[in-house]
Amino acid sequence: MKRIDMRTWSRREPYRYFSGMQWPYCSLTCEIAVTPTRAFMKGRGIGSYLGMIYLVAKAANHVPELRLRIEDGEVCEHEAVHPSFTVQNTSGRLAFCQARYNEDPNEFLTLTRADMDRTKRLPEPPLQSTGNDTLYLSCLPWVHFTSVSHPMNMTPQDSIPRITWGRFEPKGGETVLAVDLLVHHGLADGEHMAQFMLKLEEFCAKPETGFAGLRP
Q: How far is 21 from 17, CA to CA, in rounded Å?
């Protein structure tokens, strides 16, 4: 992690401006075509939820602005940010599961699958805060949505991005996925949000790139 020098940071003025607002957040929802990557995941026995967690985390880590966080009033950039997401335990209760991001899909998929299975077996699933080097991920597999809102801490201002996707939706002979990204506007602009969406779109269109290095 490195601290940003506010004296030379190109975003210092937007950061100060948007941080002064009562609601300094913005979100973007896009439809991402996922036909190739869905077939890829099915063919290799990768669960769609687990596979999308990997691709979303990989796309987010490619955008430096999505690795920025506000910590003790200062802006910091993390080398990597790690997915935190919900799973259901055997009683149907929600629990937060935290995984460590690793660009190697073999390592990430194996370790995260084990983390998910372990969390599902917990009799009292934990719902608790995480570290700042985190991405909050959610899936709404029941609906195809056009927008999403989230609970946020305002004191201090929460700077962790939220990324949510919906169900696989048939459309025009293809399969699409609604994906929403919410960010602190002082840390990221529409350009950076678009970079994330375009990178995720690339990974989903070319799963051999998204899952590069995956062993048979």
A: 7
DSSP H helices in the chain: 12-19, 35-43, 48-61, 105-120, 190-205, 207-210
- For tokens 């696989």, the residue is 168
Query: How far is it, in rounded angstroms, from Cα 82 to Cα 162?
Result: 12
Residue 107 belongs to domain spanning: 25-210
3-state secondary structure of 90: coil
The whole-angstrom distance between residue 161's C-alpha and the CA centroid of its chain comes to 7
Alpha carbon distance 38, 46 (integer Å): 9
Does residue 129 form part of some domain?
yes
* pTM of this prediction exceeds 0.85: yes
pLDDT bin (cut points 50, 70, 90) of residue 131 is confident
| CATH for 90 | 3.30.559.10
Geometric angle at alpha carbon 152, from 146 and 154, rounded to 5°: 135
Q: Please tell me the total count of domains within the chain.
A: 1
